[in-house]
Amino acid sequence: AVEHEGAAYLYYGIPGGLNTTPAWSRTGNSADAEFGCAVAGAGDVNDDGFDDVLVGSCNYYDDEGKNVGAVYLYYGSQTGLRASIEPFADWQYLETQSGSRLGASLAGLGDLNQDGYADFAVGAPFFNYGYLDAGLVHVFLGAENELSTLPWWTAYGSLESELFGYSVDSAGDVDANNFVDIIIGARGYSNIYKVEVGGVYMVTNSGGTLAMTPVKTG
Q1: CB-based contacts of 122, cutoff 8 Å, min separation 6
Q2: How far is the C-alpha of 42 from the C-alpha of 112, rounded, in Å?
Q3: Closest CA to 139 of 119, 157, 115
């Protein structure tokens, strides 16, 4: 067995509850990868009529550095999640900075730009950007064919040890303009009164365009 490689399991619903046998599973395939540190439904990213699944591997090591983190997307199908072995997933994204722990948070966001494809967000709360452990959140757009590995939108924390992106989720349509907004947690946020009190940011969506600067709301 590979120590701390991690695993993710999918269970189908049945009348009266959940099946006790997983219908699908994956392991990290490398020591200390922590595969499955976060999981989320992605919605129908490729608009084929089947929902897809995101899995984070927040301690993933690459050849350049350790703990960079990775996110994997698995497409649904008529028979469930595809049994993809090579490649390891239908889509994957690796961070490049050591210690950033990409994939610690994941969220399906719905169709942000109303193009018919579900979109999703991934967090790397220990990413250094101007400040140590400021954190970041990437948003990726769904597509029919190959998903881009270039984020459509990125926001960064603005304080040392803020851990921006420690959590992320769809906020629904907060401002009633018929476009989905995003909410982001910053567990390590500190103000002049308290250290690591934590913070919450809102990102508004206007006509399919996300605000460049998240607004702190709590």
Answers
A1: 54, 56, 71, 93, 102, 103, 105, 106, 137, 138, 140, 168
A2: 13
A3: 119
Strand order in the sheet with 153-156: 105-110, 119-124, 136-140, 153-156
Under 8 Å between Cβ of 32 and 129: no
Residue 149: closest CA among 102, 99, 101, 91: 91
pLDDT digits (tens, 9 = 90+) for 180-191: 999 999 999 888
pLDDT band with cut points at 50, 70 and 90 for residue 85: low
Q: What secondary structure does DSSP assign to 80-98, as a single string?
A: SS----SSSSSEEEE--ST
